[in-house]
Amino acid sequence: DKIFTFIRHNQMINQKIVLITSGGTTVPLESRTVRYIDNFSIGTRGSTSAEYFLGLGYAVVFLHRRGSLQPYNRNFQHKNFLELFTTNDADDGDVKIKSEFKGLLGMCFAKYHLHVENKTLLNVEFTTLSDYLYLLKVTSEFLNECMESAMLYLAAAVSDFYIPFVDMPQHKIQSSSGPLHLSLQIVPKFLKPLTSKILPRAFVVSFKLETDPSLLLQKCHKALDTYNHQVVIGNILENRKREVVVVTKDSE
Amino acid sequence: DKIFTFIRHNQMINQKIVLITSGGTTVPLESRTVRYIDNFSIGTRGSTSAEYFLGLGYAVVFLHRRGSLQPYNRNFQHKNFLELFTTNDADDGDVKIKSEFKGLLGMCFAKYHLHVENKTLLNVEFTTLSDYLYLLKVTSEFLNECMESAMLYLAAAVSDFYIPFVDMPQHKIQSSSGPLHLSLQIVPKFLKPLTSKILPRAFVVSFKLETDPSLLLQKCHKALDTYNHQVVIGNILENRKREVVVVTKDSE
């Protein structure tokens, strides 16, 4: 499929390649899904990082939550896109970029199309946790062919809890039956098989998000010990856009 | 504020006016919110209906979930908007609409800007259940001034369950502490005060979504009896885009 073709193309020309995951995964609460648990991530870090990696000459597989921020559209996604344009001078029913957005949007537009045409950027979408895990696994298997030129940059906010399919109510939960009690199971850790079996030679960067600063460092070190990969970047919800801690094997 | 100004303007010129709600509300699971419960609604019905109301000469307050479909952008929101355009012939860093989208997007663009400039369309955003309830209440209070020219069209998918603020954990729930048990309370019904006190003379249309066909009709009739409003439109998740049941006071 298109992921395989993209990776194979970049492998043939010896391009460094990074799989970036971004945005949050959902877990359904009902098997004919009306409701689900989500998290606040909109993909700021993943989409911004993707632009940096592209600037550094990497090919990027951008595995992101449907509708979350993507490289080069991230500055404009919060707006109704119809607001970015105005009627053009020819008045032929076509549009032009509003003057206040011209510089940034024109540049983003050009870079986006350049990277897509050069096959250095591939956007792939997920929504649910199971979509995400499936796509992460198959992409990692393809990437393993690239050996040391492959990087994994796991910025997605992956659900920690889910309701197993057998425990799910089939129909919409009725509010007339009183308060709702939910029991969620812990999602099996997928990073262990990824770093030890599927992609053992890649450079792997994972992220930890906490709200309690007293837990952060210890959780970063624990992740590095457990998964034996290269870098954990830890951040606290409130100041995550200004400050991170970077924990590497050498710093242990 | 802008909602008041918009409604007052349309009231002065005796414009019929409808408040359309659209998209899903979220309920946080943690007070420093990382996780929340959401529902699948992306606002197809609300945004499509808004275009019909605008076509019929109504002024529309479109109260929608941030990022969900809006009138005139709804056919394009699922795409990265950078994909809708190509470089223009002048090659001056500006863009033009790709030929395959030219007809529909050009028309939507023109209609959107016409309605915004004519003050017949106002987009207002919510995310959480409490944002939604607050905005619905204040907008309805303004609308009550319009007497019988006001309509309420409640297409949003509002959460049925929430976690009261006092019951919420402050910090991110830790997956190391084992399976997660959540207890959610039923959201108080807001339609009763709306139809009986806040907006007693407006024409009110509400919606019911179920997954079990055997419950639908009875739940529609029950809603009409309870809230004593004008119309309930019932639909089943699987075929909601092709078929609805319409229950009115006369049909009781």
From TrEMBL, chains A, B:
GO biological process: coenzyme A biosynthetic process
Molecular functions (GO terms): phosphopantothenate--cysteine ligase activity
Origin: domain of life: Eukaryota
One Pfam family recorded for the sequence: DFP
Gene Ontology cellular component annotations, sorted alphabetically: cytoplasm; nucleus
Organism: Helobdella robusta (Californian leech)
Protein name: DNA/pantothenate metabolism flavoprotein C-terminal domain-containing protein
Span of domain DNA/pantothenate metabolism flavoprotein C-terminal: 141-241
Family: Belongs to the PPC synthetase family.
